[in-house]
Amino acid sequence: MKRRLTVAVGATALAVVLAACGTAPGSSESEETSATPTAAESVETGDVAGHNAADTEFVQMMIVHHEGAIEMADLIVERAQTEQVRELGERIRDAQGPEIEQMTGWLESWGEELPAEAEHGAMDHGGMDMGGMDQQEAMEAIRNAEGAEADRVFLELMIEHHRGAIEMAQAQVENGQHPDAIALAEDIITAQEAEITEMEQMLQDSWL
Hints:
Keywords: Signal. InterPro entries: DUF305_CopM-like, Ferritin-like. The protein is mainly alpha-helical. It has one domain: Ferritin, core subunit, four-helix bundle (Ferritin). The protein is built from 7 helices and no strands. The termini are far apart.
């Protein structure tokens, strides 16, 4: 009888211990859940990148601006009289195409309008003015130029086009919020300043 009583007491004690242990995971899970930051807290702490109106405007305008540059580059690849200018046109086209895809993805993820849907007075080719020419006039100037003159006209117009992109990118660096969009703007400034230097050197060469 004494042995049975001892076993019963031991079983009761074990049940109490197990019951106490059973509440621990629930308590721990509750504490972990309450410690998880909300979406709003994540944005405030920088875990989730936000964007502002400057980011949206920059991306919308730069997409259209890049489309204009690619249009000009495609034309000079067909009409260039020198391998240097043709190769430059190919580089511009190959670099800016993927950037358009990247920026389009940003607008879609942000829930913002694509350039074709947005209503901006200066949206036509990023509001570019190339030495008094708009995009259509610039294309006609390249198309109507003969021989090496086509190369020269392209270089002069693309220099102005790049300067416009740099100005837009500098404004983004100053006013933007989205880190990837700011990084792209900085890359555009670096790349297009280098290409301006390259094109100015080409214009000084005797073959033009």
